[in-house]
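Example for tutorial group B:
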C-alpha cells in the first residue's frame, strides 16, 4: 500500500487532512521528498501566516524540514506553481476559497498537487476550503492524532484558550487533540469573528503543527 501515493501520470489532487498534531505536515514532506528524489520539478508553498518555525522551510515538531516558499494569496500560488510537476501546499485552509480554482487549474494542467490542511476548525465545523478540496480530490488521507484525555484516535482540535476567531495561529498550549467523545465544543455565545490573514496573530515560534 503506497499510502495514497498514486503513480504520477497527468494531473491529480491529493488531500491530507485531519486535526492538529496528526502528522499532516510529516506526510506531506514524505511525499514531496520522494518526488524530489525522483528529480521532479517540485514547488513547495505555505501561506505567509505560517512562519512560526521558519519562513523558508516546512518544519515539523520533529525538526524534519524541507525548503519551501511563502505565498500570500491564491494568485501568488498560481504564479509560483506555474509549470511545476509537483506542487505541495501546507496549511492550505489559510488560503481561503480562492485557492480552489487555482488548485483545480494546476491539476487540470497536469500537475500533481498535494495539499495538507485542517478539515475542521476548533468548533469541529468543517474548515473551508478543505471540504471543497476533498470533494475534488482523487486521493484523500485522513490523519488522526491521539486524544490527550483518553488515548483514542483524535479527530478534533480542542482550543483550550478563550479566543473566538476561527484562525488562531499560536502556541501548543492553545490547542490539544481530542476524540469525538472528549471534545467539548466552545460555548455558542459571542458571534464568530471572521479574521482575515492580516489580522491574525501569527508570532510565536512554538506553533502547533499538523
Ligand atoms: Zn478521548
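The residue assignment follows.
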Amino acid at each position: 500500500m503506497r499510502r495514497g501515493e498514486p503513480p504520477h501520470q497527468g494531473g491529480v489532487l491529493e488531500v491530507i487532512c485531519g486535526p492538529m498534531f496528526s502528522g499532516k505536515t510529516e506526510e506531506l514532506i514524505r511525499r514531496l521528498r520522494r518526488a524530489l528524489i525522483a528529480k521532479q520539478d517540485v514547488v513547495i508553498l505555505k501561506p505567509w501566516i505560517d512562519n512560526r518555525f521558519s519562513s523558508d522551510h516546512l518544519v515539523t515538531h520533529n525538526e524534519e524540514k524541507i525548503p519551501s516558499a511563502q505565498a500570500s494569496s491564491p494568485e501568488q500560488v498560481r504564479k509560483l506553481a506555474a509549470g511545476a510537476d509537483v506542487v505541495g501546499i501546507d496549511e492550505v485552509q489559510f488560503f481561503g476559497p480562492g485557492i480552489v480554482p487555482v488548485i483545480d487549474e494546476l491539476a487540470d494542467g497536469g500537475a500533481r498537487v498535494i495539499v495538507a490542511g485542517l478539515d475542521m476548525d476548533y468548533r469541529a465545523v468543517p474548515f473551508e476550503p478543505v471540504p471543497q478540496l476533498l470533494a475534488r480530490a482523487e486521493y484523500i488521507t485522513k490523519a488522526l492524532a491521539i486524544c490527550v484525555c483518553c488515548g483514542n484516535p483524535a479527530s478534533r482540535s480542542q482550543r483550550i484558550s478563550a479566543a473566538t476567531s476561527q484562525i488562531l495561529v499560536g502556541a501548543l498550549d492553545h490547542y490539544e487533540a481530542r476524540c469525538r467523545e472528549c471534545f467539548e465544543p466552545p460555548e455558542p455565545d459571542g458571534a464568530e469573528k471572521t479574521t482575515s490573514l492580516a489580522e491574525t496573530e501569527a508570532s510565536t515560534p512554538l506553533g502547533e503543527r499538523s
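Residues 24-37 form the longest helix (14 residues). Compare this with the pattern of hydrophobic and polar residues in the output above.
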